[in-house]
Amino acid sequence: MPEPVSFQAPKGTFDVLAPASTRYEQLIATFAAVVERAGYGLLISPMFEDVAVFHRVGEATDVVRKEMYDFHDKGDPPRHLALRPEGTASVVRAWVEHRPTLPFKAWYAAPSFRYEAPQAGRYRQHHQLGVEALGTEDPDLDVEVIGLLDGFYRAIGLTGVALRINSLGDAVCRPGYRALLAAYLAERADQLCDEHRERYRDNPLRVLDCKRPACLAATAGAPFQADHLCEACAAHFRRVRDGLATVGVAYRLDPRLVRGLDYYTRTTFEFAATALASAQNAVGGGGRYDGLAEALGGPPTPGIGFGCGIERVLLACEAEGVELAGSPGVAVFVVDTTGGTAALELTVALRAAGVSADRAWDGRSFKAQFKAADRSGARVALVVGDDELARGVVAVKPLRGGGPQTEVARSAVIEHVRTIL
Ligand code: HAM
What we know:
- By secondary structure, this protein is of the alpha+beta class.
- The chain has helices at about 20-35, 50-55, 60-65, 90-100, 140-155, 175-185, 195-200, 205-210, 215-220, 230-245, 290-295, 310-320, 340-350, 365-375, 385-390, 415-420; strands at about 40, 50, 70, 80-85, 105-115, 125-135, 160-165, 250-255, 265-275, 280-290, 305-310, 330-335, 355-360, 380-385, 395-400, 405-410.
- Bound molecules: histidyl-adenosine monophosphate.
- The site of histidyl-adenosine monophosphate (HAM) has 28 residues, from strand 6, strand 10, strand 11 and helix 12.
């Protein structure tokens, strides 16, 4: 026998046990209802992919350069794989592989893995709710996608979320703008933060997103993409803004919103929870990625989507005092002191009739079983002792909200319970 040791979940990860996990269930169910109403279908993809799939997310991004959990499998030769750091690349890879008809609208609820410095709201395994829609450049789709995330926050009762949007241009206007920004930064390289002084050439746009005072000061007069869009991108962005106004989604223009992944083109957006500290207040974000399908070996196919971190949303709900009505546990608890099969039979019959039910084990005392009944959160206890068994009845005792104890014939008890719950 190996020495007994005590294990813990790996750093930056956590277990979610009931009842806390019911909040996850609730968020996923609400999200599914919101997006399925708009024609999005659930997509389940592998938790790991060929590492090259994620390289298409952007070789110069932190997510790929520093944070990816990559490994070699036991194949001969071994394959270089990586745990999914985000959902979009997998969904687009799946679309390219299977080519379902366009427009293709998919949603997912999936764990994502990033080797980050763990802190509140930043984990090495987090869980994203997301949608991806492929097949059209229509700006109305941008409005639909942003509106869905906005609608999700509303559906769960979160009110303190602020939307920022930007346009990052496309293959026509981005290269010129990028050169303009790089020239601006080159003149001020010595004023940038330590990291960007070296790295601004790899990805000048990231400097605009840097929160360090040095970069903020150095980029105060920087050119912004939104002022250097080509006519097609400018028209697209205008239509998105008009559309958001039409459907009543409030937003603020943020020319610094470049986001942390390189596949974005045109519209980008992010929702921040006003109740959370600014470093981890992004409760969801996304944008267009009109070149990603092609980069993953498919035909040119525009796309847009978002990812929304469940843990961040839960933190925002807590900070705002939003109660997520979690599942209350079971409805009925069966207390059986006969030592026979009453508990077994009743719980099975209740569950078959659609009533959630639990029981105690190991022939515990009446008192211990009632304690367990209380802890279970059940609203009603069904009690069978020797006396009830002999008379063919079940005692029905309300556990929540008071009321008298009653007695019901064993044959009628399931129907009775359904009427009182
Ligand atoms: P992202 O902004 O990197 O975008 O992540 C989406 C959301 O996941 C964030 O807004 C945040 O709520 C949550 N999140 C990210 N990293 C962590 C972490 N380490 N711990 C906890 N929560 C985290 C994407 O991943 C894109 N795939 C979104 C997208 C979809 N763009 C287009 N389609």
